[in-house]
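Researcher: Next sequence.
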Amino acid sequence: MTGDRLLVETAAAAAAERQVEIAFAGAAGTRTFLRRQRVAYPFHVGRALYLPGDPAELCTVYLQSCSGGLFQKDRLGIALTGASGARAHVTTAASTVVHSMPDGHAEQHVLIRADRDALVEYLPDPLILFPDSRLRNTLTVRAHRESTVMVCDAFLAHDPEAKRRPFGWLRTETRIEDEGGRLLAVDRFAIEGRQLLEPREGIHGPHTIQASLMVIHRADPAAALEALRSALPADGPVYAGASLLPGDAGAWVRLLSADAVALRQTLKDAWSAARERFTGAKPGTRRK
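Model: Next structure:
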């Protein structure tokens, strides 16, 4: 069995086990609302929020976990849909802890669909990988050519006992597809915790905290790239680079840092620049 088939079949199996299915609907000049939601343990979905400073139509939803993080043998699935004209921002209330796993691993599979003229943002806080944690994380974005989708993926390692014990492994895959399901771009990332304990020059050096932000905007990928690059620091504790995605899918930026606060701010600046470029306004203040 090839790796591609394995990931596809794993994601397909997760589709039958989704704990979260949320559909947003809206139209120009009206508030986006939750048209449909089905939520099961361990998740909780907060009420729709309309925050000062955001476009009047934009709906913000916090996705919370009642379990305290990801545990061994968890199999979690999330599906988000933005109907034509919807404007939605989905985030988490805090970082997600991936707990130690003596045996086995956890999986999380996220599917995002965006119809014509929809704006969907899925920006969870970073994963915190505990010693001996193992996680397979997949994200699939199926975006109409005239939609905008912003997604981020970030992680850091943490040993509560400060003994420099490494996490087990992290394997992530992000797939960008057109509205018919044709693959436009794919990013795969695999790392073992012990690799981060070694400051490997030319690979990550001292930068053990990593993040990616993708702006899927097929109608004008160059505009997405310009927005991201305008927000990146010329120097400082964050090492970042932006480029176009394959398949004219949009643009993305990858960030490395040894400073979690600095990386978080740079990630926020890049998202803010992209939001302003495609809605005309920067995000309003959000409380975490």
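Model: The first strand starts at residue 20 and ends at 25. The chain has four helices and 17 strands.
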